[in-house]
């Protein structure tokens, strides 16, 4: 049976508080009492619980990373950046997945209020349309830093990429390659990141005097099979697009599969471009043109700022949004 501080207190007829202070070499406790406590602790083979003591001091040396998913290579790379920064500072990283559910995200942040973690890095779910649950955590003194998917209505630090500009340039690229009927696949109208990409796409069409069909922006779901049926129906229609922009990586495979089943050639019949960090993008047939995001750098920068805040008592996070640019990599799917 493990020996607790309470058991030590009973053995020495001292208070739990005195035992705790003696074991942490507090100046409030006499040298004689400290010696008595240490001897008894050694005699009973007492082993301190660092996690429990860190909770009492609200320092767990742990940060939480709240993500909508990890199937997307962006988040996998971001985790690598976060863990590199955390390990350098002696912190642990706990990964929490919302699976694109607002209710799960809300429950997680409520649970964090008990001091389980010292700080939080978060990329919100596709369903997240409010921020009360995030503000409540901040109000409890737990710092929060956003990355990639952010909430503008929360006053804290945020790390994003240039989504509007990237989408604008991606659309111009397809227009320059001859596309005249573009479709844009998005996952949520509640996410700032989705709306920024849609606006970049729409502005590029407007600047080139290209009409935008009413059904040009396709609102996809969190269900892979449903997305496939939706994309296949789009590519089977009379107004079949000659170019597709997938705003997230997971919408790329359904496009390739639908084209294969419908015997549509990429890029001759349909040009395909995706926001993606897939390492296998050059190996696809044909190789996929991508907007590649600075996932590792974004994750590491966000973690470094959070850790800097945690290591400085009473440090307050800035409210600015830091933008790390993405890169358009042209491959055979659009050329």
Automatic annotation (TrEMBL):
<keyword id="KW-0804">Transcription</keyword>
<dbReference type="GO" id="GO:0000976">
    <property type="term" value="F:transcription cis-regulatory region binding"/>
</dbReference>
<dbReference type="InterPro" id="IPR010982">
    <property type="entry name" value="Lambda_DNA-bd_dom_sf"/>
</dbReference>
<dbReference type="Pfam" id="PF00356">
    <property type="entry name" value="LacI"/>
</dbReference>
<dbReference type="InterPro" id="IPR000843">
    <property type="entry name" value="HTH_LacI"/>
</dbReference>
<dbReference type="InterPro" id="IPR028082">
    <property type="entry name" value="Peripla_BP_I"/>
</dbReference>
<dbReference type="InterPro" id="IPR046335">
    <property type="entry name" value="LacI/GalR-like_sensor"/>
</dbReference>
<dbReference type="Pfam" id="PF13377">
    <property type="entry name" value="Peripla_BP_3"/>
</dbReference>
<dbReference type="GO" id="GO:0003700">
    <property type="term" value="F:DNA-binding transcription factor activity"/>
</dbReference>
<feature type="domain" description="HTH lacI-type">
    <location>
        <begin position="3"/>
        <end position="57"/>
    </location>
</feature>
<keyword id="KW-0238">DNA-binding</keyword>
<keyword id="KW-0805">Transcription regulation</keyword>
<protein>
    <submittedName>
        <fullName>LacI family transcriptional regulator</fullName>
    </submittedName>
</protein>
């Amino acid at each position: 049976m493990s020996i607790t501080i309470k058991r030590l207190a009973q053995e020495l007829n001292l208070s739990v508080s005195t035992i705790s202070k003696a074991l942490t070499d507090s100046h409030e406790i006499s040298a004689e009492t400290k010696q008595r406590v240490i001897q008894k602790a050694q005699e009973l083979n007492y082993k301190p619980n660092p996690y429990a003591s860190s909770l009492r001091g609200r320092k767990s040396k742990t940060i939480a990373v709240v993500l909508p998913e990890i199937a997307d290579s962006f988040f996998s790379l971001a985790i690598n950046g976060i863990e590199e920064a955390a390990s350098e500072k002696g912190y642990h990283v706990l990964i929490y997945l919302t699976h694109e559910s607002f209710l799960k995200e809300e429950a997680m942040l409520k649970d964090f209020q008990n001091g389980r973690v010292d700080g939080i890095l978060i990329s919100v779910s596709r369903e997240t349309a409010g921020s009360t649950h995030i503000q409540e955590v901040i109000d409890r003194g737990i710092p929060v830093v956003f990355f990639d998917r952010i909430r503008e209505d929360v006053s804290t630090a945020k790390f994003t990429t240039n989504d509007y500009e990237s989408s604008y340039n991606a659309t111009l690229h397809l227009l320059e390659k001859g596309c005249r009927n573009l479709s844009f696949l998005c996952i949520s109208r509640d996410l700032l990141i989705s709306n920024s990409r849609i606006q970049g796409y729409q502005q590029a069409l407007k600047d080139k005097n290209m009409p935008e069909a009413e059904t040009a922006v396709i609102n996809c779901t969190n269900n892979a099979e449903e997305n496939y049926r939706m994309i296949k129906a789009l590519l089977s229609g009379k107004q079949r697009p000659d170019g597709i922009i997938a705003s997230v990586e997971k919408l790329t495979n359904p496009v390739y599969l639908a084209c294969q089943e419908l015997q549509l050639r990429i890029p001759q019949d349909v040009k395909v471009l995706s926001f993606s960090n897939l390492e296998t993008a050059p190996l696809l047939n044909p190789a996929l043109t991508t907007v590649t995001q600075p996932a590792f750098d974004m994750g590491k920068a966000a973690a470094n700022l959070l850790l800097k805040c945690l290591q400085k008592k009473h440090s307050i996070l800035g409210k600015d949004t830091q933008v790390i640019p993405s890169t358009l990599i042209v491959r055979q799917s659009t050329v």
